[in-house]
């Protein structure tokens, strides 16, 4: 059956709703399901690495490759948009007539014991070929009630949703729209919630050449340990604007004072949809450029970055072409930088296809 319901409008009216009579359920924290080890493996998030550890010397020794071959850039973007053919395995997650996410049918089975929080009305209003969609119990009518109830379920699921950060992300149908509740960051992909973040290219111009400051992530990070990253990047948590988040992350990740970071310029977005097992990662990244003063040396404040290096932009492009050293979504943001600063030109074959692929996800 077709998966085209993912391209439908996210605004629909509920025509049918099954009746529900609350039964005095056990407390959320006592509800357990007989999870099998295979389910645990499928749910477990993965710590991504470059395959083998590498040093800055390895990074700087990457050989040059043909400048007119854009296919390696496209390959890296595809790594952030895996398994699109499996979108039909997910059902809509609906709050107040709005599709706010997507839940894998297997993960939905794990939520069904929590019947005082999650319910599954039987209808095809939202195009799900499972004949139902996921929503929250009508007794959970306020954002605060929803946030607490869903948090208890996530806590009850325990290690099945690893990497809990105690960091809440707002859940809305689109950016800037009313917030229905807040959700633990690590759980967002399991509910297909659209997540927003900021990535900043910190660059320097000297001797008629442009350089990018790169960070190498701490080996202790649970995700992408030891891999290359932007000078500054981070998720967009509840209650802070993109611009203020850039300033906050600049201070925490690179020791950049507000006197410099407030000059960061918003330059657009990239987006992607990545599916792995029960997880659908729908990310929108707001991109910023900051021209860093010559002589400024970044230093990490929060322990998440091992070290920084200043690398010529042409070499950064080459690293993307030839290696898997970068954290996956950094490839999109840097490729966007290469377009905007003239390093990728219309004369190169595949120019438009590559440009369009930078926004393969929902930009809303």
From TrEMBL:
InterPro entries in UniProt: DUF4743, NUDIX_hydrolase-like_dom_sf, NUDIX_hydrolase_dom
This protein's name: Nudix hydrolase 20, chloroplastic
Lineage: Eukaryota, Viridiplantae, Streptophyta, Embryophyta, Tracheophyta
Assigned keywords, A-Z: Hydrolase
Boundaries of every Nudix hydrolase domain copy: 195-336
Spans traversing the lipid bilayer: none
Presence of the UniProt keyword Cell wall biogenesis/degradation in the record: no
One MF term in the entry's GO annotations: hydrolase activity
Domain of life: Eukaryota
Pfam family, one: NUDIX
């Amino acid at each position: 059956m077709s998966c085209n319901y993912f391209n439908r409008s996210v605004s629909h009216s509920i025509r049918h709703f099954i009746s529900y009579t609350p039964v005095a359920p056990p407390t959320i924290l006592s509800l357990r399901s007989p999870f099998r080890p295979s389910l645990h493996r499928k749910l477990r998030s993965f710590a991504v690495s470059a395959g083998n550890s590498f040093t800055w010397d390895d990074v700087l020794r990457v050989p040059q490759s043909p400048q007119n071959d854009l296919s390696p850039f496209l390959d890296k973007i595809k790594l952030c948009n895996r398994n699109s053919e499996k979108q039909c395995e997910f059902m809509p997650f609906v709050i107040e007539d709005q599709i706010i996410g997507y839940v894998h049918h297997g993960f939905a089975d794990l939520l069904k014991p929590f019947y005082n929080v999650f319910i599954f009305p039987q209808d095809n209003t939202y195009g799900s070929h499972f004949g139902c969609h996921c929503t929250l119990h009508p007794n959970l009518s306020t954002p605060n009630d929803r946030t607490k109830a869903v948090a208890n379920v996530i806590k009850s699921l325990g290690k099945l949703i690893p990497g809990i950060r105690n960091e809440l992300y707002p859940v809305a149908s689109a950016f800037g729209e009313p917030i229905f509740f807040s959700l633990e960051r690590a759980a967002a992909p399991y509910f297909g919630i659209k997540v927003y973040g900021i990535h900043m290219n910190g660059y320097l111009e000297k001797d008629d050449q442009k350089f990018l400051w790169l960070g190498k992530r701490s080996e202790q990070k649970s995700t992408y340990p030891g891999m290359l990253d932007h000078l500054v990047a981070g998720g967009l948590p509840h209650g802070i604007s993109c611009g203020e988040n850039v300033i906050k992350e600049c201070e925490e990740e690179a020791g950049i004072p507000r006197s410099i970071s407030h000059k960061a310029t918003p330059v657009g977005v990239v987006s992607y949809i990545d599916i792995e097992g029960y997880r659908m990662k729908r990310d929108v990244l707001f991109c910023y450029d900051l021209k860093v003063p010559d002589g400024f040396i970044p230093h990490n404040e929060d322990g998440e970055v091992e070290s920084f290096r200043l690398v010529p932009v042409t070499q950064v492009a080459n690293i993307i072409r030839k290696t898997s050293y970068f954290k996956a979504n950094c490839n999109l943001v840097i490729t966007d930088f290469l377009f905007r600063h003239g390093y990728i030109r219309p004369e190169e074959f595949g120019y438009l296809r590559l440009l369009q692929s930078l926004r393969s996800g929902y930009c809303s």
